[in-house]
Amino acid sequence: MRESLLTIPINEVFEPREGCPICAMRNTVEQHICEYIMGAAMMEPDVRIETNRLGFCTTHYGMLLKQNNRLSLALMLNTHLAERREKMFKGKGGMARFTKKSVPEEKTCFVCSKVNWGVDHMLGTLYNMWSDAGFRRLYSEQEYICLEHYELLMLGAFKHLKKDDLKTFVEATDKLVEEYMKSLNDDVQQFCDSFDYRNARNLHNEDMEHVRSSIERAIGFITSRKPEAK
Q1: Is the separation of the CB atoms in 168 and 200 below 8 Å?
Q2: For residues 143 and 220, what is the distance between their CA atoms, to the nearest angstrom?
Q3: Which candidate, 122, 148, 118, places its Cα nearest to that of 14?
Q4: How many angstroms separate the first and last alpha carbons of the chain?
Q5: Rounded to two decimals, what is the model's pTM?
Q6: How do the pLDDT tens digits run along the chain, 230 residues long?
Q7: Which 3 state secondary structure label does DSSP give 208?
């Protein structure tokens, strides 16, 4: 398939053949959005209205803190808190606002909404690329697809792909997930077994790094987020 402005970003996250390519896709979009809103966009009225309304989730508050621009974050927090305070306490008090039938307010995040939009559009390009034999081969050479993005890919495939392409896509994706899951499951089992006195010290052998890292890798595979290092 001839490369274009749409296909280049897809190939860039698949070519390393390391980890989950959809995680890499999400991380790339996420980083761009975080840098964008902590820069000049922070002073754009349309952006501030949306960040005041939606706020951020815990994950993205952490990423914004790592941007090393505490003043920009403080300015957004200041107006977000003011808007929420007015919404919550202006007029009727808590007893009037809540009843037995009340449901928890939906959690929202400005970054999540933008990242989801960006990833959805990139996945649309990915499905269009499935007709190309070269991309199908590149896809099948990936290390794995994480469980979080396995579901996302499958749901999208049923909407975008025709019957024959859908069949080959599902088969390729299932193979990536199942083979890695089995290998990971074996590594976690080995980690557990290493605490048996009969296997004492085995965990510290040089060739056991894949077992020592199995807990972190399992969490990343299940959640799509690598746990923070100790």
Answers
A1: no
A2: 13
A3: 122
A4: 44
A5: 0.89
A6: 678 889 999 999 999 999 999 999 999 999 999 999 999 888 899 999 999 999 999 999 999 999 989 999 999 999 999 999 888 887 766 666 777 788 888 899 999 999 999 999 999 999 999 999 999 999 999 999 999 999 999 999 999 999 999 999 999 999 999 999 999 999 999 988 888 877 667 777 777 788 898 999 999 999 999 998 66
A7: helix
